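USER: If only I could read backbone structure tokens as easily as an amino acid sequence. It would mean a lot if you studied the pair and described how this chain folds. Here is the record:
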Amino acid sequence: MKQFTIALLRSKILLVTLFCFYVQASIAQDLDIGYMSSGGKLKPLQAIIDIRHYTINLDVNIINKSIHGNTIVKLNLSQPSDTILLDLVHLLKIEKIYVDKKPVAFEHKNDLIYITGFQFKLGNHDVDIRYGGNPPIAVKPPWLGGFTWSKDKSGNDWVSINVQKEGGRLYFPCKDHPSDEPNEGVDLNITIPSGLSVAGPGLLQKTITKNNKTSFYWKTNYTISNYCIVFNIGKYVVAKDSYTTINNHIVPIEFYVLEEDTMHAKKLIATKIRDSKILEKYFGEYPWYKEKIGIAEVPNSGMEHQTMITFNNEFKYIKIGGQDYSDNLFHEYAHEWWANKVTNKDWAHMWIQEGIGTYAEALAHYELGGIEAYNEIIAKHKRSIKYKKPMVGGEELSEDETYASNDVYTKGSFFMHSLRYVIGDELFLPTLKKLATDPAYTYHNFVTSTDVEQLFSGAAGYSLKPFFDFYLRTTNVIELSIKETGYQQYQIKPLNYFMDLPFEVTVNGKPTRMILGKDGITVKSNSVPMVDDKGYYLKKIVIQ
């Protein structure tokens, strides 16, 4: 009898274990959003949608790690349709949807919302979606996104959101593609437990406290990327200052710093003001001067969230030219120009914002530490290139497909360094500033690699397309041969020629800029000449 009881007990334990394993596996599968990646091929039903405005109203329950409310999507249809297609993660439950204040049928599957029941006319529509639930929890923020529910050192609730990889659909209904942004901006109305604060994009319109809850009403009138439509919650103190731009606009500076870290605020704001001057010198006026320069302290690495970039490097700085510098703070701030103002139309062209944003760091090193500091960081970027895949691997790519290699950062930066040498400072610097300031390339006008190439080709007066294609669409390096062809006579020739390029050739200790064409050049020298000794190109030299 005892043996039978033990055997029965063991069987029950096994069944319970198997059941728990099945439930956990099912939950894990349901919660898995690792497959999600923003962008990719634009769906035909979304190609006819132009997003005009989002209004996001949410009550955040920190204890339950849940959100509940509604999002109103103002959109314009370029043609009649029997379906409006939007994105929202499957983990959130939709309760009701109204289009132009009329209830409609819908189906929510595969992270997509199919809104049906009417023949929706060409023109403007308001889509009101009521929903709630537990949004995805970030696995490795900001790279693997979602909500981060944490505590500061004093035990206060501290919440951050990061959705660049997966897209805004992780917590609000939207058209989740980089080629479309809300032209008329966003209203973000977030209700949280009183005693905490919400840091958001744009300008804070008002706060309303009722029943131990406080609602924060944020508003931006600028166009804004989906992944920048986020907020952060914390026991914040708002440290304030102002900055006068190069065009004499006075912009408020607001640093949402944790109450326990207020002693760091003055230095960080002073650093921000100095960095603003550097960035404006090369890229023009701060882009969001009608709103604010915002920073929010978060429990993860920083992100370029528009007018409220996030920051967390434990307030550590390095010295460049005797001055304190934070690469995390500067890089995310450079994205206010390169990502938020100049925005790629397709994730395939991410090098534009990440590569030039990284090159901005080299310009900052030059301003703070001179040419030696500039050369040092450029050499560091060069050493970091992996050559695993081209920076531009096609068109209509997802964020994952492009971000598979960090070369969009480091090779993108080095590409700018090479391009600068090819056309010279007198053309490169003003053209780079034009890319950051001309309305044709900024705000609601998105860019591709072709746009950038044609701009620089126009400035140079000849086609730079072969140069762009070589750097962006291949993993090759320039291969040169140096061959002794006679007494103190050498031929320098490209082995994978794609266009005539200038090279610095050092002969008998004297550097000279020479154009190297398909057939190469011949020089007289009492020793083997040096080619591109300063390293303006990614290259390989074969001595024959």
About this structure: The longest helix spans residues 351-383. The radius of gyration is 27 Å. The mean pLDDT is 93.
